[in-house]
Specification:
By secondary structure, the chain is of the alpha/beta class. The protein has a single domain (5-249), classed as TIM Barrel, CATH 3.20.20.190. The chain is built from nine helices and twelve strands. The strands form two sheets. Strands 1, 2, 3, 6, 7, 8, 9, 10, 11 and 12 form a ten-stranded mixed beta sheet that branches. Strands 4-5 form a two-stranded antiparallel sheet. Helix 4 links the parallel strand 7 (106-111) and strand 8 (136-140). Helix 4 packs across helix 5 (143-152), helix 5 packs parallel to helix 6 (171-185) and helix 6 packs parallel to helix 7 (199-207). It starts with a strand and ends with a helix. 41% of the residues are buried.
Length: 250
């Protein structure tokens, strides 16, 4: 069995509102190797940390986040969907999260997009922390976004997020798509779902010099799969479960 680093997806969303300072701090307290968070732009083009387009998913506001200014968002409460009694949180800017946590833990920064100007705007904030880029990885589903960040932030690790397979996608198709979309994006690594892993897929990607991380590693079977194939970095919604499994296999 192989050791893997554990990335806490949106912090510890089972205990605090996801993508909030409290959730990220809890990830540090529990010993996560990294935490993942999402970045979107407000209507006045301020990078903020929030996953959904819709504010009415799990907040006190209603509407689309891209229709709100940063000033309008500052009094919005964010609730914990997995633990309703938990104390509510608030939306932070990217700058606040980087100032609070950079240098304390590795950061996986998911650029939600889709605005073409996102790379320039978000990149301006990231550049102020370039001395810590060895602890950052930037992710996106969009090859064009990753290429744009290559121009804006050369030297920052950029990884391709590969979506869950559709019903017609056999593993040989996944392998082909993952290799060539990663090449297109000039990505360091591709993040695959555990259901997309096989020894053939892993070998083929590694032979192309492409690293593999895994996302949505949220059950025992998925943990066994990533361990079996030697995946060295996983992202999970259930940090304690993943940590217990890793400790058991050590």
């Amino acid at each position: 069995m192989n050791h893997f680093d554990i990335v806490a997806h949106r912090g510890i969303p089972t205990e605090a509102p996801e993508n909030t300072i409290a959730s990220f701090q809890r990830a540090i307290d529990l010993g996560a190797d990294a935490f993942e968070f999402d970045v979107r732009l407000t209507s006045d083009q301020i990078p903020v940390v929030y996953h959904y387009f819709q504010l009415d998913k799990f907040t006190s506001a209603t509407g689309m986040i891209f229709d709100f200014t940063w000033e309008q968002l500052q009094n919005v409460e964010v609730f914990c969907k997995n633990n309703p009694p938990a104390k509510s949180g608030r939306i932070s800017t990217l700058e606040e999260i980087l100032e609070t946590f950079s240098g304390k833990i590795d950061l996986e920064i998911h650029i939600q997009g889709p605005e073409p100007e996102a790379a320039e705007i978000i990149g301006a904030t990231l550049k102020r922390f370039s001395h810590l880029w060895d602890q950052f990885e930037l992710t996106s589903y969009e090859p064009a976004m990753l290429l744009a960040f290559q121009e804006v932030c050369p030297g920052l690790a950029r990884d391709l997020l590969f979506p869950r397979s559709e019903s017609w996608m056999t593993l040989d198709i996944v392998q082909h798509q993952a290799i060539h979309t990663s090449r297109l994006a000039k990505a360091r690594a591709v993040h695959l779902h555990p259901s997309q892993l096989s020894q053939e897929v892993v070998n083929a990607l590694h032979n192309q010099g492409i690293e593999i991380h895994a996302w949505d590693v949220n059950d025992e079977q998925s943990l066994e799969t990533v361990a079996k194939f030697g995946i060295h970095r996983i992202c999970t919604d259930y940090f304690k479960q993943a940590l217990a499994y890793r400790d058991k296999m050590s």
